[in-house]
Every structure is written in structure tokens, then in C-alpha cells.
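To: structure desk
From: M.T.
Subject: fold request, one chain
Message: Could you run this one when you get a chance? Sequence is below, nothing fancy, just the single chain.
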Amino acid sequence: MASIKDVAHHAGVSVATVSRVLNDHPSVRADTRDRVLTAVAELGYRPNAVARSLRTDQTRTLGLVISDVLNPFFTELARSVEDEARALGYSVIIGNADERPDLQDHHVRTLMDRRIDGLLVSPTDGGSPLMLDAARSGTPMVFVDRWIGGVDVPVVRTDGRGAVRDLVAHLHALGHRRLAIISGPAATTTGRERVQAFRSALAEFGLALPADHIGQGDFQADSGRRVTARFLDLPEPPDVIFATDNLMVLGAMDEIRARGLRVPDDVALAAFDDVPWFVHTDPPITAIAQPTGELGRAAVRALIDLVEGRTAESVILSARLVTRRSCGEPEGSKP
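Reply: Done. C-alpha cells follow.
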């Protein structure tokens, strides 16, 4: 493997000159820079990233802590973060919190100890003192999808209220009147926001949301199945179950089928967070789609702005309703 000394010898310059070229120092003449870069290419020289980070106080590495790597939404989010960071010259280290605040904080602490340049986090709850400490310490940080109140960092997220209103209008037009919701944890901003949006939309159409038509899950399939079982055991079960993430709707579908019931003939289903394979279920699932790829890309751009000394603003994107056939839509309905 070629060394920096080999590059210097090949280009006919000093090691210090090679270093200045690699660090984009403006004092190097254009012809000298061209010779050095040609030597780098011909020898296949790769600078030592660790040594460079000690000189520049930058590692060109970002940390990403996601709530659940098994959730397709977060898998797609991580993919878009990694793609955008790589395109902008950064690497990404990913930590999976598995919806556990203690594991989330472990990953945050570990990433900060590894001298990452900046941190992207989708918080598992709103009560982590470590997040507040990290923000106060000056670590460049951006929240993505979820956020923590009182922590003054940019937030890149989706506003799903309009899409939830569209869903309720769609269900009302199909004749559904008894609607139930499987919420996420109340400790998460998305868990609270989606229930509030659903309640407000129901009120707009003159529909109630009784206490027994609200069930709290944990964004995992098992909780979706458990809450659905309680709904179906009611003397008057709901017409529609709206699960506020893609894994909980799968749990709901499992429980419905385990009882010999059919979607949407016996009970309709809808979900927040569309995923590609919803079109392959029977019936295909009506869902609210977030612009997941753009969320990830916008979060990376905001974080790199902070890392490189620029200001960064919060970004709010819009979700949209994708109608299929799990709510009793006519055969042949298209998104």
C-alpha cells in the first residue's frame, strides 16, 4: 500500500506539500496540485482517516440512532440517510434502539465517544437527560421523525394531520361510523400526534372516539394483535381499526384472521406508514405514506449544515393517503 512519502516522491514534492493538497490548502499552485493528485490516483493512495481526524478535528462520520431497525419505515429511513451522507462525503454509523430508551442512550453515548461529527436521532421517548446534555455540549444534532420537547435542535419530520383527516373523510364516505385506533406509546411525539389528529378529524365529521376504541400499542406487531383482540371482544366492535404504524397493522391482521374473520368484510383496516409490500397483502392495505426518503435526505443535509458551521432550520414534510381495498373500497380502486 502506497504511503504519503511514496506520493511525495512520485510527484517530486515534499510530504508537507502533499498534505496541503489533501487538505485543500489554498497556498498550493495549480500545477503542483495536479501533479500530487495524479500521483495519488496512479499509486492508489488512501489517506489515513484516523490520522486526518486528529489533525482536522473531523472524522467525516455521522451517527444515526433509529428506534427499530426491523420496522420497514426506519429501515428505509436509514438507507436514505446513508445514501445521502455518502454522496456528500460522509460515512454513517447506525445504532438500533429497539424502542428502548436505555439502549438509545447507550448508542448515543457510544457514538459521541467515537468522535462522530454529528448525530441524527429518532427518539424512543421524551425523557432522556442525555439528549439534553448532548445538545448543550455543542454536539451537532438533528431529530428525525420524532423529537423531544425542550431540546433546541432542528427537527425533520412529517406532518400527518392532513392525511389523517383525508383518511377519516374516506372512511366516512365509505359508510364507516365506528372507528378505533391503535396508538403508539404516549411518550413519543408521533404516538400522541396521530391520536390527536384522528380525534380531531372524527369530531369534524360528527363521530365520537369512545375510550374503549383507543388502544395503546408500542409500534410492535404483538401489541397490534393484543389491542385488536380487545376491540373485537367488545359488544359492538368497531367497523374500522386504524393502526398508527405498519407493524401494528400486521398484528391486527393476524388477530382478525385467527378468529376466522375477513378484511374488510368483517372489519376494515388502515395503517400509518405505507410500505411497498402492502400492495401484496390480501386485501392490499390502505395507508398513510410518509416521504421517507426525503425525510432521510433532508435530515442529513440539515446535520451537515450544522457540522460545517452553517445554520439549519427544521423541515416539515407532508404525508398522503394511499387508498387500496382494506377498507371496503370498490374492486379496481387505485391509489
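Reply (cont.): The longest strand covers residues 61-66. Let me know if you need anything else for the meeting.
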